[in-house]
Each structure stands twice: as structure tokens, then as C-alpha cells.
Amino acid sequence: MMVFYYGLPLTLGILIVLQGGLNRQIGAHWGLGAAVLLNAGILFAVSALFYGILRWNPEWFPEFLRPRSQVVAPSWWYLIPGVCGFCLVLGLPWSIQSIGSAKSFILVITAQICAGLVWDAVSTGVTPGVWKLIGGALTLLGSLFVIFG
User: Fold this and answer.
1) In terms of C-beta density within 10 A (0-12 exposed, 13-18 middle, 19 or more buried), how is residue 19 classed?
2) Which of 15, 35, 17, 38 is nearest to 25 (CA)?
3) Do the domain assignments include residue 100?
4) Residue 27 maps to a domain
5) Residue 58 · residue 66 · CB < 8 Å
6) What mean pLDDT comes out for the span 59-84?
7) Domains in the chain: how many in total?
8) pLDDT band at 147 (very low <50, low <70, confident <90, very high)
9) Are 122 and 114 in contact (CB under 8 A)?
10) For residues 118 and 127, what is the distance between their CA atoms, to the nearest angstrom?
């Protein structure tokens, strides 16, 4: 099962590149705003289908994914992930169009590593060890080589 949990982020990394590149192509034909709207519609339809399957067959899925019997009232910050998703769907193709795919994704990966270290420290109290900090610094250095090399 651990292979799945390590394979999942690797697969997601590939899908992020695929999504950004394809959205740039769609944007070239329809305009990026229309590509973002198309993505939102498909995301809504697939999410609604997935939620329906979760409601009718919760035993098929891990507890973490299952709908809760008691739902708490949403807070204003529940909107932030959706805005982040919009920014990704709009921003990645725009960045690819402007500076190219390799530079865009090197910067995305670098930002994700740094933000992940900060997120772990702030949200879970897990302070990054010296090796993680060295890895983050090497990632930053490597990204500079890709961008300016």
C-alpha cells in the first residue's frame, strides 16, 4: 500500500504538467478564460459523480474520504482551496506560455518544497531537520541553474 502513497504524488506531478500544457493548448484556440471555465465545469461534474459514489458506497473508500454524518458550519477560509485551484488552472498555462514549461514547473516544484516545509512547521509543529533544509536549499540552487543556465 505504501507504493500507492508514494506513487500518488508522482502521478499528480505528471498530471499537473499535462493539465497545464493542455490548458495552454486549449487557451490558444479558445482563450485561457474559456479553458478555465471548461476545467471548472468538468471538475464540478467529476466531483459530483465522485461524491455520489462516496455517498452510496462509502465502504469502498478509506475513512478519510467518506462523507461525515455531522457537518460543521463552513468558515470563510473554506473558500481558499477553490481560489487556489482557480489560480493553478489559470496561472500554469499562462506561465508556460510566457517562460516555458521547464522553467514554470521547476519554479512550481521549488515553491512547493519550500511551502511544504513551512506548512509542516506551522500546521503540525514538525520542524524540518537539517537534511530537509539542505534539500530545500539544493532545490533552490538547482532551480537557479535551470532558469539562468
Assistant:
1) middle
2) 35
3) no
4) yes
5) yes
6) 89
7) 1
8) confident
9) no
10) 8
**Closest by CA position to 103, among listed 94, 90, 113, 114:** 94
CA distances from 76 to 2, 21, 89 (A): 35, 32, 22
- Residue 90: its pLDDT value, please? 95
This prediction has a pTM of 0.81
Express as a percent the part of the chain with pLDDT over 70. 100
Angle (CA) 140 145 147, round 5°? 90
Cell of 23: 490548458
Domain interval for residue 43: 12-68
- The label of the residue with cell 455531522 reads 70
Which residue in the block uniquely carries the three cell numbers 512550481?
108
Residue 149 lies in a domain: no
pLDDT-based confidence at 50, cuts 50/70/90? very high
Side chain identity at 12, as an amino acid letter? Answer: L
Domain assignment present for residue 2? The answer is: no
Interatomic CA distance for residues 26 and 48, integer angstroms: 24
For residue 40, give the amino acid letter: A
